[in-house]
Amino acid sequence: MNKTAVVIGAGSGLGFGLAKKFKKEGFKVVLVARNEQSLKEMTEQLGEDVFYKTADASDEETLKRTIEEIKNEYGTPDVVLYNVGITAPDSDNLTAETLVEHFKADVAGAYTTATCFADEKFSEKRGAIIFTGGGLAMYPAAGFIPLSIDKAALRTLAYILHDKYKKQGIFVGIVEVCGTINGSLYFSADNIAESYWRMFLDRDKCEYAYETPGLSEEQNQYGAFENKSAEYWGKVYKFSSEDK
């Protein structure tokens, strides 16, 4: 076992699917999340060569400390998957403070993760960092204001870091999940995880959109600035309900 994958934001949905996929491909896997009980359960389900660390991705100092522990205990990883996102619908009393708190987890944590892992040893291993983006980056929704803003910012960050680190042999990319994870068979965590694996292997482009089949030719018709995002998401959710 000579390759390691780190999954930050290892919840029971896509995080678990990512861990399962990379373990299947022969990787040692380190899971990172806030909920220790959930991490223990996932580690037991996944079996040998799966480990965990507890950390809050929105707490910069805690996250930095955890990353250093991972590097010291498990060595420099080959791939880091940043799968953090506060996805609950907005409350009626959304505040600027809430926007900032969400940004810390959704975007600032991704920046901290990338900059802490992207050292000389990671460069020598030609390591990869892949973020979990979302369709809200291109098609924002009024009921998800912080998440729409943050996924757009995360997409921008991925492109910037992609260009910044490619000279060092480090790949940075983002998978845009344009639907509800586990909301349908097509959007199952296992199916989506295959996109991360292909991106890790190919390293040919910064962004991949995992989107509803049949909508790709219509993407430009449903741009955020044309105020048609609601119509776009209506199509996505209609497909999801039919695919169950």
Report on this model:
There is one protein chain. The protein has 244 residues and is an alpha/beta fold. Helix content is 47%, strand content 16%. It is built from 8 helices and 7 strands, in the order E-H-E-H-E-H-E-H-H-E-H-E-H-E-H. The chain has a 7-stranded parallel sheet, sandwiched between helices. Strand 2 (28-33), helix 2 (36-46) and strand 3 form a beta-alpha-beta unit. Helix 1 packs across helix 7 (189-202). Mean pLDDT is 89; it is low at 216-227.
Shape: globular
- Mean pLDDT across every amino acid position: 89
Number of helices: 8
Number of beta-strand segments: 7
The helix-strand sequence is: EHEHEHEHHEHEHEH
Structural class: alpha/beta
State the helicity in percent bands. Answer: 40-55%
**What's the end-to-end separation, in Å?**
37 Å
Q: Quaternary arrangement of the chains shown? A: single chain
Q: Please outline the major beta sheet.
A: 7 strands, parallel
The radius of gyration computed from the alpha-carbon positions, rounded to a whole number of angstroms, is 17 Å
Strand content: 15-25%
Topology:
Blueprint lengths: L3 E5 L5 H11 L3 E6 L2 H11 L3 E5 L5 H15 L4 E4 L13 H22 L2 H5 L3 E7 L10 H21 L5 E7 L11 H14 L4 E4 L18 H15 L1
Helix pairs in contact: 1-7, 3-4, 4-6
Considering the chains and any ligands shown, give keywords for the structure.
single chain, 244 residues, alpha/beta, 7-stranded parallel beta sheet, 7 strands, 16% strand, globular
